[in-house]
């Protein structure tokens, strides 16, 4: 079978030159980037394919039947992913999130999960291993994911109204099947489960309260995400962003909330707990989160790196170029120590703070040679 050649990613986004490192590089200190941020969180995209066509992420008009996805030989193999993940763990990473595309579409993903679950930090701890999914295959796979060693899942769900949800995923996928997937994940013990809802003004803001009512008191943490200007194909405009502050105000009209402390440094979500009749946080009612990627820059403590489906390392969700680590992984002369030295050098050179800069000068128009890569490729 012949492979299709994919011009999209390679030609539009040439990779950045890899730093030259010495074989004797001192690896005794974990790297801090140019803004003194550590590297603790790695997101790995395992496929650039998805079975949904959400207009804010993979619009049908662009990702149609002729769209050239990466051929299999371009994807990192499970062994390559596990090897580079282990190098990252040696350089400070404590949390790995598998994403995509739709990660559950990657064949035998459980094998990769087993391999990653076996990794240990230098002080012998298991990783925080999680996965973001649209939930469409979760009912079928929740137990095998748990058995393979996955700890928890985040499920994307943009509303409970079936008509709105079918329209947003644009493949007529029913909401009931995602809810069944969430229930299966809960039954399998893949918790604490988070549910991400992208809020688009004029499309699904009427779903905010029904979603909050539905998940309140279930142990599931619902998070509202501002519609972001990621990629270059979703036709983003500020008018369609509903600021998180408005979301919190709307929730408060019916469900009193109190603000909670961040659970970890670099946490992207602002946490709000449901209050009891005394106005105090009631853990039995749970919490919601808001992710203000557009209206409130949170670059200051961003500790995340992203590995694309074909092994490029991106230092920011809004980056246009990455570093080709696959080239190193497929070079038999490269030892793990050399890979670690390269990761260190790349991280130490990092100064990205796209959201801060955007809030100062406004969003890019996302066209031209510096256009940003798609979220489905870099991993959401
Ligand atoms: N297919 C998986 C899923 O649906 O969760 C994982 C990949 S998806 C790119 C990861 C997350 O990014 C989802 O929660 C999705 O809603 C979110 N996302 C995609 N495009 C976005 C955008 N333009 N603004 C905000 N969130 C977005």
Automatic annotation (TrEMBL):
Cofactor(s) needed: [4Fe-4S] cluster
Subunit structure: Monomer and homodimer.
Pathway connected to this protein: Cofactor biosynthesis; molybdopterin biosynthesis
Enzyme Commission (EC) number: 4.1.99.22
Stored PROSITE patterns: MOAA_NIFB_PQQE, RADICAL_SAM
Coiled-coil ranges from the UniProt annotation: none
Positions bound to [4Fe-4S] cluster 2: 299, 302, 316
Catalytic reaction list: GTP + AH2 + S-adenosyl-L-methionine = (8S)-3',8-cyclo-7,8-dihydroguanosine 5'-triphosphate + 5'-deoxyadenosine + L-methionine + A + H(+)
Residues in Radical SAM core domain copies: 34-261
Function: Catalyzes the cyclization of GTP to (8S)-3',8-cyclo-7,8-dihydroguanosine 5'-triphosphate.
Binding-site residues, [4Fe-4S] cluster 1: 50, 54, 57
Protein keywords: 4Fe-4S, GTP-binding, Iron, Iron-sulfur, Lyase, Metal-binding, Molybdenum cofactor biosynthesis, Nucleotide-binding, S-adenosyl-L-methionine
Protein name: GTP 3',8-cyclase
InterPro entries reported in the protein's UniProt record: Aldolase_TIM, Elp3/MiaA/NifB-like_rSAM, MoaA, MoaA-like, MoaA_NifB_PqqE_Fe-S-bd_CS, MoaA_twitch, MoCo_biosynth_MoaA/MoaC, rSAM
One Pfam family hit: Radical_SAM
Residues where S-adenosyl-L-methionine binds: 56, 101, 156, 228
Family from the record: Belongs to the radical SAM superfamily. MoaA family.
Binding-site residues, GTP: 43, 97, 132, 194, 304-306
Catalytic class of the enzyme: lyase
Listed PANTHER family: MOLYBDENUM COFACTOR BIOSYNTHESIS PROTEIN 1, MOLYBDOPTERIN COFACTOR SYNTHESIS PROTEIN A
